[in-house]
Amino acid sequence: MGEISSKACIAVDVMGSDRGAGAIIAGVCQALKENKGDIKIIAVGDEGEIKENLRLHGFYKDSRIEIHHASQVIEMSEKPIQAMRSKKDSSMMRAIDLAKIGAADAILSCGNTGALMAAGTIKLRTMAGIERPALGAVIPRDGKNFILVDVGANPDPRPTNMLDNAILGANYARVAGIVEEGKMPKVGLLSNGTEDGKGNMLTQNAHILLNNSKNVVNYAGLIEGFQVFQGDCDVIICDGFTGNVLLKTLEGIMKMLKGMLKEELTSNILRKFGALLSMGAFQGVKNRLPVEKFSGAPLLGLNKLIVKGHGSSDKAQVAGALGIAIKCVRRRLNESIEKDLAKIQLEAEKKKAVESETRNENE
């Protein structure tokens, strides 16, 4: 799936992150430097702060950036529905409104996750055939990265939602370059064993559905936790509760190992000298695990794309999340998902027709 179009218009919630407008605008400017083609950014938030930060980075007169003023900010601690009702002129709500009316192709926000998912689902609605959206994340892995979905949108799904997750994740894998063009991503279902009958009732029923949908999903079967990083699946699906716990556990492990490594390498003069000699190797590992490039998680399954960035995202992470949004728009992610959903619907109608015909013959 190549880039079909160079055009992309992204509405960016400038005010909602922990770091404020400065980090978001810095990331926007970096992304504009890195991405070529017909790109438009609608910076949504306090007009004065946005202008000040654009001047700071030399982008004040850049024709690719439009400012849309919003007078309110949804704080991280606010309850989603209450925030939606009381802060209709917030940067987040206005960014979603711009996508709803067709002024933007996608939204990027590093703000309140609950408010973003609630407002996105209510205002933009799910695609036909999708009951609930799911958050997908690119997870770096030695050799080949993979997509983990769902990482927090739907903590208590039904088996049919898990099938949807497989379709959403597989399409995102194509767009994200996880698989070569023309190949079907390999999908695994996370469980506590690989044999039939393993897992809770959700996993067992989802396993049956996925096995019966192999014409649309390249289903590889159940996988265990150790296969997440040692296996070869392009997409790993699970419920939003498990996915969120797994994602945050991985982030915690990375921070712990980084801290331990730094502590040990600086404990004495000899180790400091050894660390200096090993700088090339450390840089090589960092290049193989470019976490900042995968710092955004698309909320898949809505009629317009929403990309959720970390609340504490720095300039590089904001640029990476914005890059994901641009790539998804350019490669027409939603259109690809709709085609797979149409296949599922067609198969369901054929099955229903055959069952009806069989009943009539028996009668």
From TrEMBL:
For this protein, the Enzyme Commission number is: 2.3.1.274
| Gene Ontology terms for molecular function | phosphate:acyl-[acyl carrier protein] acyltransferase activity
Specify whether Transferase is a keyword of the entry.
Answer: yes
Q: Which UniProt keywords apply?
A: Acyltransferase, Cytoplasm, Lipid biosynthesis, Lipid metabolism, Phospholipid biosynthesis, Phospholipid metabolism, Transferase
Q: Which organism is it from?
A: Intestinicryptomonas porci
The family assignment reads: Belongs to the PlsX family.
> Which Gene3D superfamilies does this UniProt record tie to the protein?
Isopropylmalate Dehydrogenase (3.40.718.10)
Its gene is plsX
Q: Would you tell me the protein name for this molecule?
A: Phosphate acyltransferase
